[in-house]
Amino acid sequence: MWIYGRHPVREALRAGIVPRRIVIAEGAELPADLLQQLKEADVPVQRVPRAHLSRIGLTVHHQGIAGDIGPFPITPLQRLMDLSFERLAILLALDHWQDTGNVGAIVRTAYALGAGGIIVPSGRTAPIGPALVKASAGACFHIPIAQGNVIQFLSRFQREGGTVVGLDLKGDDIRKGQAARPLALVIGAEGAGLSPRIRERADAIWTIPMAGDIGSLNAVAAATIALWEVLCRREGWNR
Question: What stretch of H or E contains 103?
Fold first, then answer.
């Protein structure tokens, strides 16, 4: 897989992912520390016409650099399950999010706030590819991301002793919910919300109370608030 942009390349290196090769646009001036990192990692670097990068990355927003990292490091489902119980983590399950920018934004937020991992469905969801890497500013390399049958994963998660909570417009006040450990927080897609099967499977449904007269928050905002609320109570953070 080709990734593009300075932050994604830098974060891939920081995560221990050594690109097979790097291409840099002719005339592009990149930070000296990034060039030094590439040199220290012994990554082959080639100067190419700028148009060549646009073809590789399928975008003009490549910032003059692209790298071939091979297959994206998807976390096996069993590994995500094991990690969640080892760390008593909070997982995010994205219920058919199709907007790549939104998925990238919540991956970045989840990593920043200390979530234990993310699971996305195999189909009807934003692809895990260069655009997602760019949208997450490379944060996707630092948090476990698994892909597969979310319903089956959540069912087993519950059998092992985990708690599954869905976030929706209609539910119990999130401020009164029990922040169990480990916990899988399921966020529905923009517009569609939680799928019926997820709603049936969930141990509880939480909602974010709102003072303003507005229909709903977008999925990224709702997921961020929910994750912050759960982590604050679980970790004892002052608010």
Answer: helix 100-113
pTM, whole model, 2 decimals? 0.90
Q: Which amino acid is at 197?
A: R
142 vs 8: CA distance, rounded Å = 11
Decide: 71 and 103 in contact? Cβ < 8 Å: no
Q: For strands 65-68 and 21-25, give the pairing.
A: antiparallel
* Nearest CA-CA partner of 175 in 206, 202, 220: 206
Residue type, 4: Y
For residue 43, what are the CA distances in angstroms to 46, 68, 202, 230? 10, 10, 46, 41
Sheet holding 204-207, edge to edge: 145-148, 117-121, 90-95, 183-188, 163-173, 204-207
Which phi and psi (to 5°) does residue 78 adopt?
-65, -40
Q: For 86-100, how does the pLDDT look when each residue is reduced to its tens digit (9 = 90+)?
A: 999 999 999 989 899
CA 217 to chain CA mean position, Å:
19
Contacts of 27 (CB under 8 A, 6+ apart): 50
User: What's the confidence (pLDDT) of residue 165?
Assistant: 95
**What are the E-state strand segments in the chain?**
2-4, 21-25, 45-48, 65-68, 90-95, 117-121, 145-148, 163-173, 183-188, 204-207
DSSP 92: E
